[in-house]
Amino acid sequence: MAVNLVPSPEVVMDILQKTGAYRKGHFVYPSGKHASHYFQMPLAFRYYDNARFLAVGLSRLFRMDKQVSSRLPKVSIISPSPGGIIVAFAVREALNAEQIYWTEIEDGKRQFRQYIKEGDIYPAIIVDDILRTGKAIRETMDCLKELKTEVIAIGTIVKFEDAPSEFDGIPVRTLLTFDVNFYDTEEEWKRAENISDVAEVEKVRY
């Protein structure tokens, strides 16, 4: 029997739908844009088996790249956000990577914890739960550049179709690419979705 080493997008979406991590409705994002879809990834990750299954699938995409697999285990797994920490720990376990770090927002700036200095962080694999705009990953890469740490791979469980597909020439590996159509106003959203009634609006924080 054939073994699927990497879960298909359909399998990933099935998990997200069953756990409520994928939601449909009328959502207003922090940018002010309107959309009919929203992902709340922690709802899927609250079940550890789901988190491990998805993260192991992502780790296999990294192992398929000889330039990445040849550097194991002396690499670091980096999460650019709190939502990616559980992904980072599970990917680290699957790859047997020696280090794990994450960045945080402090005083309005994304940064590593105090006392991490140049030379401390091994070549980095950046992982996150979802890629929307790329801001968190870009800022994390800037932090790593300041520490003169090489970034060798980037991956997310879910990626919005219009999000960056690469950073500085490094491709983004993902298990699921999703097309979320954004609209500037509620009226544009209603016309596009063919909705005439007043729809309940839910403002999302992330």
Describe this structure as you would to a colleague.
With 206 residues, the protein is of the alpha/beta class. Helices cover 32% and strands 28% of the residues. It contains 7 helices and 11 strands. It has helices spanning 9-19, 42-45, 48-63, 66-69, 85-95, 135-146, 186-193; strands at 22-28, 34-39, 76-79, 99-102, 104-106, 109-111, 124-131, 151-160, 166-167, 170-178, 202-203. It has a 6-stranded mixed beta sheet, with helices on both faces. A 3-stranded mixed beta sheet has the order 2-1-11. Strands 5-6 form a two-stranded antiparallel sheet. A hairpin with a 2-residue loop joins β9 and β10. The model has no long low-confidence stretch (mean pLDDT 93).
In short:
The protein is α/β, with parallel strands linked by helices and 206 residues long.
